[in-house]
Amino acid sequence: MSVEILDGATIVNFLEDEEAFSVSVRDRFAHLDSNHDGQLSYGEMLKELQGLRVMETHFGVDVETDPDELVRVYDSLFVQFDHDLNGTVDLEEFKAETRQMMLAMANGMGFLPVQMVLEEDSFLKKAVEWESAKLLASYSSCMAT
């Protein structure tokens, strides 16, 4: 985990770079697809869903959540990814829903910088790394001229 500063523009700009976003999604999908069948089962997606930390917090401290309620939340999230309701999530469904979730986060965040603790392999961390690389490249380009 690391503490990063980001805003909605960080996320939106990352999503607009189709190549960078697609590579990140394909890599994450491949990591989750443990049986390499090109489909994510509920079991394969569960760790990712749990990583979303859909828990109640009280002033930043986790509050114990009813396990049955969490199962219902994870079931509901899986269905949100499984657009065709066939019981699995393919790469395109995963990409489309990941994009929608990230846009929702960007919209909720707005364009004021926010300090967040990010998991190392999260899509938000990838967006911050992408933005940092772009800024460094721009700075290097300016210094070269």
Concise overview:
By secondary structure, the protein is α+β, with helices and mostly antiparallel strands. It is 62% helix and 12% strand. A hairpin with a 2-residue loop joins strand 3 and strand 4.
Task: Describe this entry's structure for a reader.
- 62% of the residues lie in helices and 12% in strands.
- The chain is α+β, with helices and mostly antiparallel strands and 145 residues long.
- It has one domain (2-143): EF-hand (Recoverin, domain 1).
- It has a two-stranded antiparallel ribbon with strand order 1-6. It has a two-stranded antiparallel ribbon with strand order 2-5.
- A hairpin with a 2-residue loop joins strand 3 and strand 4 (61-62).
The value of Rg in angstroms is 17 Å
Poorly predicted runs are none
End-to-end separation in angstroms reads 37 Å
Largest sheet: 2 strands, antiparallel
Q: What is the number of independent domains?
A: 1
Please give the CATH class.
Mainly Alpha
CATH architecture verdict: Orthogonal Bundle
CATH topology: Recoverin, domain 1
Q: What is the H/E order?
A: EHHEHEEHEHEH
State the oligomer: single chain
**So, the CATH homologous superfamily?**
EF-hand
Share of residues in strands? 5-15%
| Average predicted confidence as pLDDT | 88
Continuous helix count: 6
Spatial ordering of strands, largest sheet: 1-6
Total beta strands: 6
Name the structural class. Answer: alpha+beta
Which percent bin holds the helix content?
A: 55-70%
Global morphology: globular
